[in-house]
Amino acid sequence: MHKHYDINLADGRSLALGRNPVVMGILNVTPDSFSDGGAFNLLDVAVAHAQQMIADGADIIDIGGESTRPGAAPVSTQEELDRVIPVIEALIAAGVTTPLSIDSYKPLVADQAIQSGATIINDVHGLLRAPQMAQVAALHNAPVIAMHWDNDRDQAKPILSEIERYFTRTIAVAESAGVSREKLILDPGFGFGKSLGDNYATLNATRMLTDFGFPLLIGTSRKSMIGRLLNNTTEDRLAGTIATNVLAYANGAHIFRVHDVRANRDALRVAAATLYGPPEEIR
Ligand code: 7PJ
């Protein structure tokens, strides 16, 4: 059912991707992502949130300092660094061993983040925005989550063939910079330059996407593809999020990027027990 991959992280450790679903907890380090009662600063809140997600069972923490939501203001490289680097340093200083990914398309931010202890690059521009991104990945031997995001694509063409064409470019850029195919994790980029129909057609094509021969990450958590369907607000999208993740998992996806770690992990564990049987110890 699930293809197995062992991904080598930037620190030399290995991450197993296969039948056991891997949950990535989202850590947004942006001023709008917390309400400050006055007692805590952004750094303390972010570190506490990461620790909570780890306690809830997160296998990876994805740290982002720039909102890529439609309409969000762009953030300077320095501002992004000032947000994410202290968080990474604080998590490492606190003894956190859960792999950290850096959600940035800026090569300088990725480079500094890895030097501070992050071990995975998460690039929403699939290595195609900045040529230096693939070089940073090669320099640090870092795996790359390459997400599909192409606002300029031909809307008349089927979304699946567009995604595959884009990833062909991603793979070529990676290989020419010295990033081997074994370092790539693909992500179809739910909500990025896609219609509601595109998003669901993409989700329904998860099996085809895994047949591409790379581990697959799914990022639907609380997104408008759920909200527009259910007519609800972000806080009410957990059930819809779980439905997308369980379906994608059953169709071979490996990593699930979520806000609500415990609930998604529980659902994915039950799905895994259904496909592969309960864990050996309690069988
Ligand atoms: C994604 C992401 C995603 C990956 C964001 C949000 C928007 N990185 N960063 N995949 N989405 N790899 O979380 O709503 O879907 S930011």
Brief sketch in words of this structure:
42% of the residues lie in helices and 15% in strands. The chain is built from 10 helices and 10 strands.
Report what the structure shows.
With 283 residues, this protein is α/β, with parallel strands linked by helices. The protein is 42% helix and 15% strand. The strands form two sheets. An eight-stranded parallel sheet has the order 8-7-6-5-4-3-10-9. The two termini are 20 Å apart. The protein binds ligand 7PJ. Keywords: Folate biosynthesis, Magnesium, Metal-binding, Transferase. Its EC number is 2.5.1.15.
Element layout with pairings:
Elements (H helix, E strand, L loop, with lengths): L4 E4 L5 E4 L4 E7 L13 H14 L4 E5 L12 H17 L6 E4 L3 H10 L3 E4 L8 H9 L3 E4 L11 H19 L6 E4 L8 H9 L1 H5 L6 E2 L5 H7 L7 H13 L4 E4 L2 H16 L7
Parallel strand pairs: 3-4, 3-10, 4-5, 5-6, 6-7, 7-8, 9-10
Antiparallel strand pairs: 1-2
Helix pairs in contact: 1-2, 2-3, 3-4, 9-10
Features:
283 residues, alpha/beta, 8-stranded parallel beta sheet, two-stranded antiparallel ribbon, 10 helices, binds ligand 7PJ, transferase, magnesium
How confident overall, as mean pLDDT?
A: 96
Count the DSSP helices. 10
- Rg, rounded, reads 18 Å
Q: Hetero groups bound?
A: ligand 7PJ
Unreliable stretches covering 5 or more consecutive residues:
none
The total strand number stands at 10
Function: Catalyzes the condensation of para-aminobenzoate (pABA) with 6-hydroxymethyl-7,8-dihydropterin diphosphate (DHPt-PP) to form 7,8-dihydropteroate (H2Pte), the immediate precursor of folate derivatives.
Organism: Devosia rhodophyticola
Pfam families: Pterin_bind (PF00809)
EC number: 2.5.1.15
